[in-house]
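Side project, low priority. Logging it here so it doesn't get lost.
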Amino acid sequence: MNRIEKPEDVPPAFEAAWNTHDMKALGALFRDDATFVNRFGHYVRGIEEIVKLHAPIHATIYSDSTLENELIDVAPISDDAAVMHFWSRLTVGVAHPAGPHVVDTLILAVLTRQVGQWGIKALENVTLTNPRTGEAVLRADRGS
């Protein structure tokens, strides 16, 4: 895994780890005591639990999935902390019981820098949904 030398490196590194289904690389993006909330509201703490949450789905229903991440913004809190938002488009293939489909999510991440390297301290992933129906929706404007 490449060093994360600036916050803007996190979305492409997350995308690369997901798309190669490399759970070691995914775990390396997080601080030891990081928290993760997936798009279904499942909360876990610690790299081991984050990997344990992802490994089974990457071996099964998401084995042919890919992500496309797009940075929205980075808001520095201090020289060694920042809040980041990025879009994430999950494309799922035939391995998923619902068949091929696409899901757009918005990710909020809190990043910290230690010894010159940025890492994820907390991450929450929210599926874009129609508030009237609860159905997942896709972003109409992929460029913003």
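Brief comment: The chain is about 20% helix and 40% strand.
Revisit when time allows.
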